[in-house]
Design brief:
Number of strands: 24
Radius of gyration: 24 Å
Structural class: alpha/beta
Helix content: 25-40%
Mean pLDDT: 92
Shape: globular
Length: 492
C-alpha cells in the first residue's frame, strides 16, 4: 500500500520526505521491521520507541512515524511527525489492514470479571448458528475455527488489526473481543469501529497500572464514551457503575439485570453443581453453568445476541447448548464424592462470586477448602483483601504461590496473610509450593466437600523470574483425583 494512503486518516504535524512510496508492513517493534516497513515510534510504559528509530532504519524501514524529528535524519526515509503516535498507531494499522471492522460486526466486552466468558460464549453461539466468527480473548484468539495463540487480553494495534483483517478476509461476519482497561488507556483500539459494547462489572484490579479506582473506571468508561451512535451499549444494572459507564455514550443504551427492571431481565430458579435453572425475560432454560455471576454473564450473552438480530427464542435455545469456558468454574468430581473447582478468580470480588456460588449449591452440606495465591508485580493492595474474602467464605484456606514473576513468593504471601485476623489465621495454612498446597488440600477433603483452586484458571504455566514453567491446576487435580488404591488415596 502507498504511504499516502496509509496516513490519509491521520493529521500529521509535519511530513519530511515523499509519501508516494510503497509500504510492505507496519511495526511498532524495531526488531520486527523488514525492508519497506513503516516504523511507528511509540512512547511506551517500558521504553520509548524513538530510541529505536536508528535500529528500525538499519533493518530497512522506508518511513517513520514519530512525535519529534530525529536530529540525524536519513534522506531515503520519510518522517511523519504526529502529535500522538500511540493514537496514530491504531488509525495507521486500521488503514494498512483494509479497515477490517468496516467489513464485520465487532462487539467489545469490558469489565473486571466475565469478559472471557461472555466473549467466548458469543463466539461459540454465533458459530453454532452457522455464522463465521472471530474471537479476541485472554485464553486464545480464533479466526473462525483456526486458533491463534495470544499473550495479552487485547493485543497491540498492529497485531489486533492484522488479526481482524484475517477474520474479515476469511469471511467472518462477527468478531467478539475482550477490551481491557490497558487497551483503552493505551489506545490499542483506536481506529476500530464497534457495533456494540458490553459492560460486566467493575471492582478493584490493575491498580499497579491505573493507580486509583477512579482512573480504572475512567479507562473503562472511555470505551463507551467513544462508541459510535449507530452502535449499542449493553450495561449491567446490578453493578453500581452500570449507569455511570453509559451516561455519556452516543450509542443506544440497553440494560440487563438479575435484580431489577431491565431490558433483559433474569433470575436463578435452581442451582446445582451440574448447572442452573434460569428464567430470562419470562422463559425458563436449563444451562450447565453454576453461580449468579454466570447467570449474569449468560444474560449479557442473551441480550447481545438479541441486539445483533437473533430472535429471543432462538437465543434461549442456543444458550442451553453452550458450555463453560476453560478455567472458569471448571468442576472435577472424584470417585469418592469430592468436587474440585478450578477458576481464574484473581480479584477479591471474583473470589467472592465463586465462593458464594459454591455455598449456594452446598447449602451447608459440606466444607469449602480454598487454595489461592496472588500474582507478582501486580496490584499489591488487593492481596490482603483476597485472603480476607477467601478466609471469610472457606472452612480451610491454603495461601500459596500464583505467578510470582519477579517477586519473592514469600513476600507475596506475607502481603496476603496481613489481611487475616486471628480467627482466619486459625484455619489458614501457608504453603509456597502450589503443587504441595493442592495435594494437601485434597488430603484434607472428605466426601461432599468442595476444593476451590483459584487464580490461574486456564493457564498452563507458572511465571517465575521471567520463565514460564509448565503448571496446570486442573492437571494437578486430575492426577490426585484419579482412582487410587485406598492406602494412597487419602480422603479423596
Amino acid at each position: 500500500m502507498k504511504l499516502n494512503e496509509i496516513i490519509a486518516g491521520i493529521q500529521p504535524v509535519e511530513v519530511a520526505g515523499p509519501t508516494d512510496k510503497d509500504i510492505t508492513g507496519v511495526s511498532i517493534d524495531s526488531r520486527l521491521v523488514e525492508g519497506g516497513h513503516l516504523f511507528i515510534a511509540v512512547r511506551g510504559t517500558q521504553a520509548d520507541g524513538h530510541a529505536y528509530i536508528p535500529a528500525a532504519i538499519e533493518r530497512g524501514a522506508a518511513a517513520v512515524v514519530c512525535e519529534t524529528l530525529p536530529e540525524n535524519r536519513n534522506e531515503s526515509v520519510t518522517y511523519i511527525v504526529v502529535a500522538d503516535s500511540e493514537e496514530a498507531t491504531g488509525q495507521i494499522a486500521t488503514a494498512f489492514y483494509g479497515d477490517p471492522t468496516s467489513r464485520l460486526k465487532l462487539v467489545g466486552v469490558t469489565g473486571t470479571n466475565g469478559k472471557t466468558t461472555i466473549a467466548t460464549l458469543l463466539y461459540n453461539m454465533f458459530r453454532n448458528f452457522g455464522y463465521k466468527a472471530g474471537l479476541v480473548s485472554t485464553v486464545c484468539n480464533y479466526v473462525d475455527g483456526e486458533a491463534v495463540p495470544t499473550d495479552h487480553t487485547t493485543p497491540d494495534p498492529v497485531t489486533l488489526n492484522r488479526l481482524l483483517g484475517r477474520m474479515a478476509d476469511a469471511g467472518c461476519q462477527y468478531a467478539f473481543m475482550e477490551v481491557s482497561s490497558h487497551a483503552v488507556a493505551q489506545k490499542r483500539i483506536a481506529g476500530l469501529k464497534f457495533a456494540g459494547g458490553i459492560f460486566t462489572n467493575l471492582t478493584r484490579d490493575h491498580l499497579d497500572y491505573h493507580k486509583t479506582v477512579e482512573n480504572y473506571l475512567r479507562a473503562k468508561k472511555k470505551f463507551f464514551d467513544d462508541m459510535p451512535k449507530e452502535a449499542f451499549s449493553l450495561t449491567n444494572m446490578d453493578d453500581k457503575n452500570g449507569a455511570v459507564m453509559v451516561q455519556n455514550t452516543r450509542s443506544k443504551v440497553y440494560t440487563y439485570s438479575l435484580r431489577g427492571l431491565a431490558d433483559f431481565k433474569g433470575r436463578v430458579l435452581e442451582s446445582h453443581f451440574e448447572g442452573m435453572l434460569l428464567e430470562f425475560n419470562g422463559r425458563e432454560l436449563a444451562v450447565p453453568f453454576i453461580g449468579r455471576f454466570n447467570a449474569s454473564n449468560l444474560l449479557a450473552v442473551f441480550g447481545t445476541a438479541v441486539l445483533l438480530g437473533v430472535k429471543e427464542e432462538d437465543a434461549l435455545v442456543a444458550l442451553t447448548a453452550l458450555h463453560p469456558v476453560a478455567g472458569r468454574f471448571d468442576a472435577i468430581r472424584s470417585p469418592k464424592g469430592v468436587t474440585a473447582i478450578v477458576d481464574y478468580a484473581h480479584t477479591p470480588d471474583a473470589l467472592v462470586n465463586v465462593l458464594d456460588a459454591i455455598h449456594d449449591v452446598l447449602q451447608g452440606r459440606g466444607q469449602v477448602i480454598t487454595v489461592v495465591g496472588a500474582g507478582g508485580n501486580r496490584d499489591k493492595g488487593k492481596r490482603p483483601l483476597m485472603a480476607k474474602e477467601a478466609a471469610r467464605r472457606s472452612d480451610h484456606l491454603f495461601i500459596t504461590s500464583d505467578n510470582p514473576r519477579f517477586e519473592d513468593p514469600e513476600d507475596i504471601m506475607d502481603d496476603m496473610m496481613a489481611g487475616l485476623d486471628d480467627a482466619a489465621l486459625q484455619k489458614t495454612i501457608r504453603i509456597a509450593d502450589r503443587r504441595s498446597a493442592i495435594k494437601t488440600a485434597c488430603m484434607l477433603a472428605n466426601p461432599g466437600d468442595v476444593i476451590l483452586v483459584a487464580g490461574k484458571g486456564h493457564e498452563t504455566y507458572q511465571d517465575v523470574k521471567g520463565v514460564k514453567h509448565h503448571f496446570d491446576d486442573k492437571e494437578e487435580l486430575r492426577k490426585i483425583m484419579e482412582p487410587l488404591p485406598a492406602s494412597s488415596a487419602g480422603n479423596i
